[in-house]
Amino acid sequence: MGGGGQLTEPAEQVNGRAGGVYTWQEVQSHCSRSDQWLVIDRKVYNITQWAKRHPGGIRVISHYAGEDATEAFTAFHPDLKCVQKFLKPLLIGELAATEPSQDRNKSATIIQDFHTLRAKVESEGLFRARPSFFCFHLGHILLLEALAWLIIWVWGTSWTLTLLSAFLLATSQLQAGWLQHDFGHLSVFKKSSWNHVLHKFTIGHLKGASANWWNHRHYQHHAKPNVFSKDPDVNMLHLFVIGKTQPVEASGGCFLFLDMNNKFTFSLLVGPPLLIPIYFHIQIMRSMISRHDWVDLACSLSHYLRYLCCSVPLYGLLGSMLLISFVRVLESHCFVWVTQMNHLPMNIDHEKHQDWLSMQLHATCNIKQSPFNDWFSGHLNFQIEHHLFPTMPRHNYHLVAPQVRALCDKHGIPYQVKTMWQGFADVFRSLKNSGDLWLDAYLHK
């Protein structure tokens, strides 16, 4: 039983078995880059060749090689009937009748209870979006940007008005980031194609980024949150160490260009403002060019062309570059703190092969609800509910939250809710603790 054959070959040609029956041990042995199987609803699929063509990218599906991917498959695909047609050519058999439905040490009770909860919220219509909500959100983004340009076009480019305009533009960009996030998760329209088109417009034309780059990166984060080597958001070893495990493991070598005391200051003062304008921008451009994503590149360039048409007559080319850099720095600060206060203080470790509910709850926490918190964070203050139900429209998170909390209480899974200021403070504390752990391990190695 080697690597994957061609997608069009029947199961007996690929594996030497007609309608093969497999154990979990056999499935788990197929987890290399050149040989990948996974299980969905007890059916065994050979995804070795398909992974290269997977719309979400090769990495996100490969993270489940050798594992049960049922819960992730259900969470990421709003139209399961549509994607089933892609699975049929990949089917090679099923689990033996003596094998449990869940792999490794996952709890069958937790999995079943979460499945019941999902069916319940689906029947309650909580996966149906309100178009007026997203139309209003798009309208207020466009209004903020129009107001920013109107101020300096009508009243001039003084320092005070330029700063005011920059703050309005940064706010517009931040809110556009949350809206593209909605489209990227297919949570607005029933038809995935409509979500994809609006996603390219929002992240490309409104923000100057790439939809494909975002999909390939962000879905990995959702598939394996806070898991080293699988979640790109915690693979920052070249800059700083995070969590409790990585600092100790990394203490064996001088792989960093700053000592850890200076890195704590670096991660707080330099990391947040430069993530979007430097780190993400380089990644995005490299991704679009290397993958030949010419549609994404055209959308991105249209954003910068529109910006330059508005700013160059007022500030000149150099002034326009400085202004957009300042706007990106402001946006990046807000983005980093909003997204990391839900994840960075939580458990960050190697793969533990947990069930969907346990994995997401160990990696996420919520921030208390308020009209400002909902708006400022794009409803990602309900990070737990978003991670459990990524295709659910964000305006319904507060409705499902009590049911999620009740399920967590039933199974003794911590459900953390903090104030926004507590979330910010925990980011400081988490980075400081990681730095201290690294230094202690390095000095006593």
From TrEMBL:
UniProt signal peptide: none
UniProt keyword list: Fatty acid biosynthesis, Fatty acid metabolism, Lipid biosynthesis, Lipid metabolism, Membrane, Oxidoreductase, Transmembrane, Transmembrane helix
Subcellular location: Membrane
Pfam families for the chain: Cyt-b5, FA_desaturase
Top-level EC class: oxidoreductase
Cited CDD domains: Delta6-FADS-like (cd03506)
Residues annotated as domain Cytochrome b5 heme-binding: 19-96
Membrane-spanning ranges: 264-284, 304-327
Assigned GO CC terms: membrane
One GO BP annotation of this record: fatty acid biosynthetic process
Family statement drawn from the similarity comment of this UniProt entry: Belongs to the fatty acid desaturase type 1 family.
Catalyzed reactions per annotation: (8Z,11Z,14Z,17Z)-eicosatetraenoyl-CoA + 2 Fe(II)-[cytochrome b5] + O2 + 2 H(+) = (5Z,8Z,11Z,14Z,17Z)-eicosapentaenoyl-CoA + 2 Fe(III)-[cytochrome b5] + 2 H2O
Membrane topology: Multi-pass membrane protein
EC identifiers of the protein: 1.14.19.44
Principal subcellular localization: membrane
Keyword Membrane assigned: yes
Gene3D superfamilies in the cross-refs: Cytochrome b5-like heme/steroid binding domain (3.10.120.10)
GO MF entries: acyl-CoA (8-3)-desaturase activity
Taxonomic source organism: Gasterosteus aculeatus aculeatus (three-spined stickleback)
Protein name: acyl-CoA (8-3)-desaturase
Pathway: Lipid metabolism; polyunsaturated fatty acid biosynthesis
